[in-house]
Write a structure and sequence with these properties.
Blueprint: E1 7-10, H1 17-24, E2 30-31, H2 35-39, H3 48-53, H4 84-91, H5 107-124, E3 128-132, H6 139-145, E4 150-155, H7 158-165, H8 169-173, H9 188-196, H10 201-220, E5 227-232, H11 233-238, H12 240-250, H13 257-265, H14 275-279, H15 282-292, H16 295-298
Parallel strand pairs: 1-3, 1-4, 2-3, 4-5
Helix pairs in contact: 7-10, 9-10, 10-15
Length: 306
């Protein structure tokens, strides 16, 4: 089975990928890896739950707790998941913790992934595949499986992303404070800067933010037929409906009223970038800003601390 024009939302963790993707994937044509896919990656039939609970007659969907109070039983309701267990199994790679730079999938892997994605779409009753992954884009590897894929890169001010990342459990529990989170990305020079900082977790996260974006841009410029679009988190928060229409247009999808209603139902959609200015001291902000340049400036983020 050939999967046509799949859509991947990519971005550094804590950059707004979830809020953007959750709105985007309200589009009725899209199927995506769900919380069921994460828990039962080799049993695609479990995804029929979405077909039953999220359709033209019934619309019961879950949401991440980080976005406000949830209803009883929320964790059992259909909602998107990065489902790394699915990707690790069907790609035969350490997909979840590697950049997979300069790696391509062989024919058997392509067939296996297409077949798995096709079953997921069939059980959900959807026509087109969309997925969200964070950290490295894995764009070169994914495009060897899906040559006509579309990549939407959500980017946030690196200092705000780092501040948020240092306060979330998964980063701490999976070793993000003490070692590079993904393999194959940081250069020897990057690692030297980290060691010179006395292995400062903030410095490590800042270096990875910069490298993730650099490598995504590099890969996007060397791949044929692959579509690549950057959306800043700050722009999405300021004008979410405009950004949503822009993303749909880029992905050759008609606008979706359901997605705009989803945005309107959200309790809050505010720019959370100022927290780092309060919690980080001036010296620390200047240090992290210097490490992230010239990327910060190229994205329109000022190095000024005022």
């Amino acid at each position: 089975m050939q999967i046509l024009k799949p859509i991947f939302f990519i971005g550094f963790p804590r950059s707004g990928t979830t809020v953007a993707f959750e709105a985007f994937c309200q589009h009725r044509t899209l199927g995506w890896p769900s919380v069921y896919t994460e828990r039962f990656p080799t049993h695609p039939g479990i995804n029929v739950v979405r077909r039953i609970l999220d359709n033209s007659f019934v619309s019961l969907t879950g949401k991440k707790g980080q976005h406000g109070p949830t209803v009883f039983g929320n964790r059992f309701l259909p909602q998107p998941s990065e489902a790394y267990s699915f990707w690790d199994i069907y790609t035969g790679q350490d997909f979840s913790r590697s950049y997979l730079r300069d790696q391509t999938a062989d024919k058997s892997t392509v067939h296996r992934v297409h077949r798995a994605v096709g079953k997921l779409l069939a059980w959900q009753g959807r026509a087109r595949f969309a997925a969200k992954i964070t950290g490295p884009s894995r764009m070169a590897f994914l495009s060897s499986i899906f040559p006509d894929a579309k990549f939407v890169h959500i980017i946030r001010d690196g200092r705000a992303a780092v501040h948020s990342l240092l306060h979330v459990a998964f980063w701490r529990e999976k070793g993000g404070l003490s070692k590079p989170f993904w393999r194959g990305g940081l250069s020897d020079a990057d690692l030297q800067k980290w060691w010179e900082s006395q292995q400062d977790p903030g410095v490590l996260a800042a270096l990875q933010w910069k490298r993730v974006i650099e490598i995504a841009r590099l890969e996007s410029g060397t791949l044929e037929n692959v579509g690549y679009q950057e959306i800043r988190y700050e722009d999405f928060v300021e004008s979410p409906h405009v950004a949503l229409r822009k993303m749909y247009s880029f992905c050759d999808l008609e606008d979706a009223l359901l997605a705009h209603r989803h945005l309107e139902r959200r309790d809050t959609l505010v720019n959370m970038n100022d927290k780092y200015r309060t919690d980080f001291g001036v010296v620390r902000i200047e240090k992290l800003s210097a490490l992230m340049e010239p990327m910060l400036g190229s994205l329109g983020y000022s190095s000024s601390i005022t």
